[in-house]
Amino acid sequence: MLTDAQRIDWLRLIRCDNVGPRTFRSLIRHYGSARLALERLPELTKRGGASKPGRIPTAEDAEREIGICAKMGVAMLAPGEYGYPPRLALIDDAPPLLGVRGALDVQMRPMVGIVGSRNASGAGLKFAQNIAHGLGDAGFVVASGLARGIDQAAHRASLGGGTVAVLAGGHDRIYPPEHQDLLLAIIEHSGGAISEMPIGHTPRAKDFPRRNRLISGAALGVIIVEAAYRSGSLITARFANEQGREVFAVPGSPLDPRAAGTNDLIKQGATLVTEAADVINALQPIMERPIELPVGERDDDPIEDEPGASDRARVVGLLGPSPVGIDDLIRLSGISPAAVRTVLLELELAGRLERHGGGMVSLL
User: Fold this and answer.
1) Band (216; pLDDT cuts 50, 70, 90)
2) Check whether domain 309-363 has CATH 1.10.10.10, yes or no
C-alpha cells in the first residue's frame, strides 16, 4: 500500500518523458524509491545523449491529476492494491499506477477477454453476445476494449455478469465518443473501466496496442471472435501468448476475410471455440493455481551508476534501426549485463531507444 507521498512520487515518475513501465521498474529497483530516481533522471538523460532534459512533472502536477481523478471516481492504484487486477500486476510491463473507475471488486474476479473485428458480421456479433452471457453465468468478468463491433457486443451482453472496459485514452477521453453511454451503463451495472493514460489524453493509433496488452494481461485468456489479417485483435493474441495467457479463436468461413486471422490462429495452435464451455473447461485448472504477486523483488542485474565511455560506445555501436536482442548485445559487447542495461536505460530516457517484444531493442 503506497502512502500519499509515494503515490505522488510514483505518478511524477511514470509521467516523465520517455519513462514507461519497464523503465519505471528498473529505476525503482536500482534507486529504491521514485523520489531518488526523479533526482537522478536529468543526469541519466544527459548521459544518454539528450540535447535537453526531459520534462519532469512537479508534485503539484501529480496532485492536480489525482484530484481530478478523485472527482471522476477514478482511483490511482498500484500493483497489489485492492482493485488493481491481480493478473495484470504479473506482466513485465504492468502499469505502475492504474486509473480504476467503478466497482473495485469486479477487477478482482477472474476475467476473460473478448475482442474482434470493428466491422463485425451479424453472426460474429451474435456469437460474442452468446459467449459473453455464458461466461457471465459461470462467474467470469468479460474484459474488452469498448471498441465498435465485437467489443461493444461483448460488453452489452455481460452487463449483468460483470464487465471491464479497457481504455486507450484517459478516463475523460472515451473512444469512440458514441460509446460514452455504454461506459456509463457499465459503471452503473457494477462494472468498471481501467486506463494507464493521464486525464486529458486523447488516444492515438499507437495507444491501442498498448491498451490491448492490458486486456490480455488482466485476463486468464482471450477469445478472438473475428479478425482479419493484420487486425488489432491479432496483436491482443500475440500479447496473450507472450504473457502466458490462453488464446481462443472462433472459426469462420474461409470465404470471409473477417475470419482469416482467427482461422490462422487455430492453425497456429489456438484453442478452437464454439461455446462458452470450451473456454470454461480450459480455464478451470488455471483458476485453481494461486496468484502470487512479486514482493520485495531484487534486481539480479542492477544498473550501474556510470558505465565507462568505451562501454557506452561499444553498446551504441552495436545498435541500429533493426531490432537486436539484449542478450545478444551482452554477448557481442563483452561487457557486464549491468553495464549494458544501464546504457540502454540512458538511451531510452534520452528518447533514442525503442523497445520491442521478446527483449528486442533498436536505436531510433
Assistant:
1) very high
2) yes
Q: What is the rounded CA–CA span in Å between residue 84 and residue 140?
A: 16
Cβ(190)–Cβ(162) under 8 Å?
yes
Q: Is the pLDDT of residue 291 over 80?
A: no
Burial (CB < 10 A; 0-12, 13-18, 19+), residue 267, is exposed
pLDDT in tens, 300-335: 455 656 788 888 999 999 999 999 999 999 999 999
Question: What backbone phi and psi angles, to 5 degrees, belong to 102?
Answer: 100, -155
Pairing of strands 98-102, 74-77: antiparallel
* CATH of 108-164+180-189+203-287 among 3.90.1300.10, 3.40.50.1820, 3.40.50.450, 1.10.1370.30: 3.40.50.450
Q: Which sequence spans correspond to the domains of the chain?
A: 108-164+180-189+203-287, 309-363
Least reliable range by pLDDT among 42-46, 178-182, 278-282, 296-300: 296-300
pLDDT exceeds cutoff 60 at 257: yes
Angle at 345 between CA 344 and CA 346, to 5 degrees: 90
- pLDDT tens digits, one per residue of 260-277: 999 999 999 999 999 999
The residue whose grid cell reads 470450451 is 278
User: Is there a cis peptide before residue 285, judged by omega within 30 degrees of 0?
Assistant: no
Shortest CA distance to 153 belongs to which of 177, 173, 181, 182?
Answer: 182
